[in-house]
Amino acid sequence: MQLALSTWHEVEDYLRASRGIIIPIGATEQHGPNGLIGTDHLDAEFVAKGVGDETGALVAPTLTIGMSQHHLGFTGTITLRPSTLIAVVNDVVTSLIRHGFERFLFINGHGGNVATVSAAFDEIYASVSMRPPAETWPVRCRMVFWFQGKQCSALRKQLYGDAEGSHATPSEVSLAQFYHPQAIKHAQMSPKVAPRSDRFSDAADYRRRYPDGRIGSDPSLSSPDDGERLYKAAVADMAELYRAFLAN
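-> structure tokens emitted (248 positions)
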């Protein structure tokens, strides 16, 4: 069930049975020679919709722009400042709290969001904790990567081994290819597996270290068939996690 495709009456009915909601979050940034700029938010959205179908969860509109300043050396990347993303997450969650939602599972596709969204959760909890006891809400927020469950993690290792890398990975490119097969791109890559390091600071430093945008990956291995397998594994993992999250 998608919030954007529902009426307010339907959301009221939903809240009589569940106080949980899934919020896909990603980024709009370069993903190497054959990866779509929207990869991070498209993958998170795709898996979140699948989990919604599997569990009956309400799925919020995707937060498509994240904290991506280090990718600004590549044309097309859009970023929010950390302070802006904190405010966006805070306002989205607070709006939904007002309607009665209590459990917020963010399905994430971008590593650069982690520190900032964690800070946003701290801001939300501080606001809740500072209210009078009679007015506090039982709010819980959690963010998980779509690929971090057991089944999907094992499949990524099986399919790509060390060539998975950490950015512009064959798994994330494959999932986007399965979601949007009409937008598959092909490109030559050299070296076949990109340099591997987690050391970078600003956009210029990142571009100098990783000239084609990849980190430790070989996304030439990607395919929509792999994407279908990854999608099924990720949805199964995240559906199990969502059910457990509601129960605690």
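The mean pLDDT is 96.
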